[in-house]
Specification:
The complex is a heterodimer of chains A (616) and B (198). With 616 residues, chain A is of the alpha/beta class. Helices cover 38% and strands 17% of the residues of chain A. In chain A, helix 1 packs parallel to helix 7, helix 11 crosses helix 14 and helix 12 packs across helix 13. The radius of gyration of chain A is 27 Å and the shape is globular. The two termini of chain A are 43 Å apart. Chain B is an alpha/beta fold. Chain B contains 8 helices and 6 strands. Chain B has a 6-stranded mixed sheet with strand order 2-3-1-4-5-6, with helices on both faces. In chain B, helix 2 links the parallel strand 4 and strand 5. Chain B is globular and about 50 Å long. The chains are: A alpha/beta (616), B alpha/beta (198). At the A-B interface, strand 1, strand 8, helix 11, helix 14 and strand 20 of A face helix 1, strand 2, helix 2, helix 3 and helix 4 of B. Strand 8 of chain A pairs antiparallel with strand 2 of chain B.
Chain lengths: 616, 198
C-alpha cells in the first residue's frame, strides 16, 4: 500500500512537503488530479500516479498546464474535488483558462498548486505568482511548513467549495523539498463520478454572460475578504512594539531570528497564511499595536506595498520597511542569517551570530556544473549535428535535460525563453538572418508547446531544421509519461501518439528518423536537412538510459576502453564530448568502466579507432 | 532542546539525500523535532547536491553560511567549497576519496592536492574528521554504501542525540534486503572510523 494511504489518524510521519500536499488532498476527498510536471512541483503528481493505481482516484499527466487546468475544470464543474499542480511558469501557460475560470467558478472544490522557484534552482525565471491571485481574483493560501502544507490543502478544498472558486495554494521550492513531521488525519472517500448540470447562461463565457459573472466575482471577493479576516491562518503573534509581517518559509526564519536575538517580548509578528485577499482589518489592528514594521517576504514587495496602502487608508503613518533593509532584496530566496541581520538592523538590536570562517586563502576550485549523463543520447545528437552545421549555426534550444547542451564542450544552445520557444523562435531567426538555423526540442516539450510552432513554420514557409530529441520519456522531471511514450513497460494503459505521424500531419515534407547513437546516420540526415529548401524535422531517437534501466529495457552495459597503443592523444573524445565517464590520469585519457554504458559514441569519433569494447 | 544544524554535501549519485532523510526519520522516531531540506531537479545531473538536517528547537529548514554545527562532506573538494557553511567551532567530517569534475578533464581548472584540501579545512574549523569512505564502503561489500559510512561516522562522533541503535533501526526498515547486511556493516565501519579519529 502507498504510504500516503495509511489509515492511521494521529500518526506522525516524516513527509516531503509535496507528499504532505498530496496527503492533504486525499484527506479532503480528492477524486480527480491533473498536472504537467515541473520542478519543484513534480513529486505531488508522482504520488497521485502511484495512488491512482490502488484507488478510484483519476489522475493524468496532461500535455501542458493549460490542458491540465481545463481538464480539471471539466471535472470540478461536474462536482468532483480536483487538484491541478504546476510550477510557477506553468501557470503562465494556464493563465488563459485561469482568468476566465475565475468568472465561471467551480462546483466541486478545486485547488491549483502553484510552486514558485525563488533562486531559480531549476527554472528560467523567478517570477512571483502572488500577482496571479491579484490578477485573477482567486484566493491564495501560503503554508509555512510541512504540517501546514497538509492542513492548508484540506482547508483550500473547503474554501473552494464554499466560495465556488478555484483556490491557489502557493509554495516555494524550499517548502516543496523539505521533509518534516506531519500528523495524519482521516482519509475521505473518493467520489469517482458526479453529474454535470446544464447551465449555459452561467457556464459559457460569452460577453453577455461574463459581464454578469465579473460582477459575481467581485461579490465573491467580498466574501473572500471576510474569510481572510477571520482565518486562523492569519494571526498576530506577540504584543511587542516592533512589527514583523511575513509569509511562507520566511515565517520560520523570522521566528528563529526573534528567538536568537532575544526579542520575543518586543515583537509582534503578523503571519499571513491566507495571503490574498490581504486581511485589511487585521492588518490595521496590527499597525495600531506597533511602532515600526519590517516586511519579510521573498521576491517582490507585494505585502509591503499593500500594507502601505492599508496604512494610508487607516491613517496610521508609521515606518514600513522591507526590501533594501540589510540584504533583503527582490532577488533569490532568503535564509535565516539574512533575516536575522535585517531584523537586528531595522530595530537596532545586536546580532551576535556565528561568523563564517575566512575563505580568502582558498584556491580557485574547478566548477562542477550539472552534465548530461554518461551515454546520454543527447550528447550524440549534438556532436553529429554540430559536425554538419558547424559551430556558427544558430541553435535555439528548449527546456529539458538537453538544455545542458549549453555548456562546453558541446556548446549547442544559443537561445531559450520558455517551453516551445525553440521552434517558434527559429521561424524568426530564419527570416531575420541569413544564418543557418537548427533548433532542438525534447519529445515531451514538443507535445507541450512545440507542435503549434511547427504548424506555424509549415504554414508560413519558414526554412530551418528542427531536431526532436526523442528519449521516450520526460527525463529531467523524473521519467513521467507524455503522449509519445509507450507506457506499457510502465504498467500504464495509455495510447501512444506517434511523433513522426504528428510531424507529417503538421505538413512537414522532409522528415528523418534516426537512432541517436549512429553518428553517421544522424549526420546524413543533417546534411539532407541542411540542403532542403523548407522546414525539415529530424527525429533523433534513443531511450534515456536511466529510463531504459528503470523500465527493464537497458541492454547490458558493455563498457569501452582506450587502447593506448593506438591512441595518439588527439583527445577529440574529451574535447568534443565532455562525457563524465572519461577522465585523465597520468596524462592519458581513460574511461571509467563503472560509468560507461557502451554507447560507442566516443569510439565513432576517435580518428585512430583507439576506443574499443573492453575485453572481458 | 539543543539545536543542531547539519549540512550534507555531495555529488549527484552519492546518496547524501537518502542519508539526510534517514537521519531525519531517526530523529523523529526518538522524539527530536527535525526538518530536512533537499535540492531536487537539474542539480542531480552530476552537479553538487546539498541537503540539511536541523534538529531541536529551530523551525528554519536551511543553514546559513557560517552556521553549521556539523558539515558532512562526501567528496573532499566539495567539502572545501562548502566551508562557507562553517565557523571556527564547526565539526567537519569528510570523505577523502576524490571525484574530479569533468571540467578538470577538459582543462577548466585543476583539482587541488589532498594535502592542501585537508590542511585548509583543518586550520579553519573546530575539528576535522577524515576517512576514505569509498574504501570502507567497498570493505563493507557495497561501493554504493558510502552514504551509510558517512552516517556511521556522524553517529560515531556522539555529538547528536540520535544513537547508533536508533539509526540502525531506521536503516533496517528502509533498506532492501539484499543490501541490508552491507549497509549495516558500512554504518559500523564509518562509526568505528570516527570514534578512532583524533
Amino acid at each position: 500500500m502507498h504510504k500516503l494511504l495509511a489509515e492511521d489518524p494521529g500518526k506522525e510521519l516524516l513527509l516531503l512537503g509535496n507528499e504532505a500536499i498530496a496527503r492533504g488532498a486525499l484527506e479532503a476527498g480528492l477524486s480527480f488530479a491533473t498536472c504537467y510536471p515541473g520542478t519543484p512541483s513534480s513529486e505531488i503528481p508522482e504520488q497521485f500516479l502511484a495512488i491512482s493505481r490502488e484507488t478510484d482516484l483519476y489522475f493524468e499527466y496532461s500535455t501542458n498546464e493549460k490542458v491540465a487546468l481545463e481538464v480539471g475544470a471539466g471535472a470540478a464543474i461536474s462536482g468532483l474535488r480536483t487538484m491541478v499542480t504546476m510550477k510557477h511558469v506553468g501557470l503562465n501557460v494556464a493563465a488563459d483558462p485561469l482568468m476566465t475560470l475565475a468568472y465561471i467558478g467551480v462546483k466541486g472544490g478545486m485547488v491549483i498548486v502553484n510552486a514558485d522557484d525563488p533562486s531559480l534552482f531549476s527554472s528560467q525565471n523567478e517570477q512571483d505568482n502572488r500577482y496571479y491571485a491579484r490578477l485573477s481574483g482567486l484566493p491564495m493560501l501560503e503554508p509555512t511548513n510541512t504540517q501546514e502544507m497538509k492542513d492548508f490543502t484540506i482547508a483550500a478544498f473547503d474554501l473552494s467549495e464554499e466560495l465556488k472558486l478555484p483556490v491557489i495554494l502557493r509554495t516555494t521550492t524550499r517548502l516543496n523539498h523539505i521533509r518534516g513531521a506531519v500528523k495524519l488525519g482521516a482519509l475521505r472517500p473518493i467520489k469517482s463520478k458526479d453529474t454535470f448540470q446544464l447551465d449555459p447562461f452561467n457556464l459559457v463565457a460569452v460577453p453577455a454572460v461574463c459581464r454578469k459573472l465579473h460582477g459575481v466575482l467581485l461579490e465573491k471577493y467580498d466574501r473572500e475578504l471576510e474569510k481572510s479576516e477571520t482565518s486562523p491562518f492569519n494571526e498576530i503573534i506577540g504584543k511587542g512594539k516592533y512589527g514583523i509581517v511575513t509569509n511562507g518559509v520566511s515565517f520560520n526564519y523570522v521566528r528563529d531570528a526573534v528567538a536568537d536575538l532575544g526579542m520575543r517580548e518586543d515583537v509582534s509578528i503578523l503571519k499571513l497564511g491566507f495571503s490574498w485577499p490581504m486581511p485589511k482589518g487585521l492588518c490595521s489592528r496590527f499597525l495600531n499595536q506597533v511602532e515600526k514594521v519590517l516586511v519579510v517576504e521573498e521576491l517582490e514587495p507585494v505585502i509591503e506595498n499593500d500594507l502601505r496602502a492599508i496604512a494610508q487608508e487607516a491613517g496610521r503613518l508609521i515606518p514600513i520597511k522591507g526590501k533594501g533593509v540589510g540584504r533583503l532584496s527582490r532577488l533569490f530566496e532568503y535564509d535565516p542569517a539574512m533575516v536575522r541581520t535585517a531584523i537586528s538592523e531595522c530595530f537596532g538590536v545586536d546580532d551576535a551570530g556565528p561568523r563564517m570562517v575566512d575563505l580568502t586563502d582558498l584556491p580557485e576550485l574547478p566548477g562542477r556544473p550539472p552534465n548530461l549523463c554518461a551515454g546520454c543520447p543527447h550528447r550524440a545528437s549534438y556532436v553529429a549535428i554540430k559536425e554538419v552545421f558547424g559551430p556558427d549555426a544558430i541553435n535555439p534550444t528548449d527546456i529539458g535535460c538537453y538544455t545542458l547542451g549549453l555548456l562546453p564542450p558541446l556548446s549547442m544552445a544559443d537561445f531559450l525563453i520558455c517551453m516551445g520557444s525553440s521552434v517558434s523562435s527559429s521561424c524568426g531567426f530564419s527570416r531575420a538572418t541569413n544564418q543557418k538555423v537548427v533548433s532542438f526540442i525534447g519529445d515531451s516539450t514538443f507535445f507541450h508547446s512545440g507542435v503549434t510552432g511547427l504548424i506555424n513554420a509549415v504554414h508560413n514557409n519558414h526554412k530551418f531544421t528542427l531536431v526532436i530529441l526523442d528519449n521516450g520519456t520526460t527525463a529531467m522531471t523524473g521519467q513521467q509519461p507524455h503522449p509519445g511514450v509507450d507506457t506499457k513497460p510502465m504498467g500504464l494503459e495509455r495510447t501512444q501518439v506517434s511523433i513522426e505521424d504528428l510531424v507529417r500531419g503538421c505538413g512537414v515534407q522532409d522528415v528523418h528518423v534516426v537512432k541517436s547513437y549512429h553518428l553517421k546516420k544522424v549526420m546524413e540526415a543533417a546534411r539532407a536537412a541542411m540542403e532542403y529548401d523548407g522546414i525539415s524535422v529530424i527525429i533523433s531517437r534513443e531511450f534515456c538510459p536511466l529510463f531504459a534501466k528503470a523500465t527493464g529495457r537497458a541492454k547490458k552495459a558493455r563498457p569501452f576502453s582506450i587502447n593506448h597503443d593506438r591512441c595518439k592523444d588527439h583527445r577529440d573524445c574529451i574535447h568534443k564530448l565532455g562525457c563524465p565517464a572519461m577522465f585523465i590520469e597520468a596524462e592519458e585519457v581513460r574511461i571509467d568502466e563503472n560509468l560507461c554504458i557502451g554507447c560507442s559514441v566516443c569510439a565513432q569519433i576517435c580518428p585512430e579507432n583507439a576506443i574499443v569494447p573492453l575485453k572481458r | 532542546m539543543e539545536t543542531k544544524r547539519l549540512v550534507f554535501i555531495g555529488v549527484g549519485g552519492q546518496g547524501n539525500l537518502l542519508a539526510s532523510r534517514l537521519l531525519g526519520e531517526a530523529a523523529l522516531s526518538v522524539g527530536i523535532p527535525a526538518v530536512v531540506s533537499e535540492i531536487h531537479g537539474m542539480a542531480q545531473r552530476g552537479g553538487i547536491v546539498e541537503s540539511a538536517v536541523l534538529m531541536g528547537s529551530v523551525s528554519s529548514p536551511i543553514v546559513s553560511d557560517g552556521e553549521a554545527d556539523i558539515l558532512i562532506g562526501f567528496e573532499p573538494m566539495e567539502t572545501l567549497r562548502s566551508l562557507r557553511k562553517c565557523n571556527k567551532d564547526t565539526v567537519v567530517i569528510t570523505n577523502t576519496h576524490p571525484l574530479p569534475p569533468f571540467t578538470v578533464s577538459i582543462g577548466q581548472g585543476s583539482y587541488p592536492s589532498m594535502d592542501e584540501i585537508l590542511s585548509l579545512i583543518t586550520k579553519k574549523v573546530g575539528r576535522c574528521v577524515t576517512l576514505d569512505g569509498n574504501a570502507l564502503a567497498r570493505e563493507a561489500g557495497n561501493p554504493l554504501s558510502l552514504n551509510m559510512v558517512m552516517l556511521g561516522a556522524l553517529i560515531g562522533l556522539g555529538t547528536i542525540s540520535v544513537g547508533p541503535q536508533d539509526m540502525k533501526r531506521v536503516i533496517s526498515t528502509s533498506t532492501k534486503k539484499a543490501f541490508l547486511e552491507s549497509n549495516l556493516k558500512a554504518f559500523e565501519l564509518g562509526m568505528e572510523s570516527s570514534r578512532q579519529s583524533p
